[in-house]
Write a structure and sequence with these properties.
With 172 residues, the protein is of the alpha+beta class. It has one domain. Helices cover 19% and strands 24% of the residues. The chain has four helices and nine strands, in the order E-E-E-H-H-E-E-H-E-E-E-E-H. The chain has a four-stranded mixed β-sheet. A three-stranded antiparallel β-sheet has the order 1-4-9. The radius of gyration is 17 Å and the shape is globular.
């Protein structure tokens, strides 16, 4: 199973092609960003926070199973990947131009996605999966439930109230 946190009411199987994601393919293809567990999914969705209680209340956590469980993924964390010039910059470099070029190359070589580390996950393990597919939404199976503050705190992300306006100094 794979995990994704997204805004309530949004399709969890969304394949982005607008260039806003690290491994976005160009249309008509796209990339769906997932994690191997709730810890990674929460950290990526929150960008490691902090977040507000309202942010939490507006999101669901999805357990998802892709239709092709035998998909061939490019293993970006294997020692052999270094022979091709791959480094950890793949998941940290900004802007995303170089990461998108790697994704396009993997796609051209017939890979169905990339198994990689997540930028906001401090664990040294491949906790991210970027799947390739047609751009837009897909109606594949999955289970959703409301994200809780406990889920978020368990991922090491602080949940903090918005400070009252009297506590904020506005600088013009």
């Amino acid at each position: 199973m794979l995990v994704r946190v997204c805004r309530r009411g949004m399709l969890p199987w969304w394949f982005s092609s607008d260039g806003s994601g690290r491994f976005d393919l160009e249309a008509p293809n796209g990339t769906c960003y997932l994690a191997t567990d709730a810890f990674g999914a929460v950290r990526e969705a929150s960008r490691a926070g902090p977040v507000t209680p309202a942010w939490v209340a507006q999101r669901d956590i999805h357990s998802l199973a892709p239709p092709d469980l035998q998909a061939r993924l490019a293993a970006a964390t294997r020692a052999g990947a270094g022979a091709y010039g791959l480094t950890k910059e793949l998941v940290t470099i900004l802007p995303y131009d170089q990461s998108r070029r790697w994704a396009a190359a993997f796609h051209r070589q017939g890979f169905a996605g990339i198994r990689h580390e997540l930028r906001h996950d401090p664990r040294a393990r491949p906790s991210g999966v970027a799947l390739f597919g047609p751009a837009g939404g897909a109606s594949w199976p999955g289970n959703a439930r409301a994200l809780t503050e406990g889920d978020v705190v368990s991922a090491g992300v602080p949940v903090l109230p918005v400070p009252p306006s009297a506590a904020v100094t506005i600088i013009d």
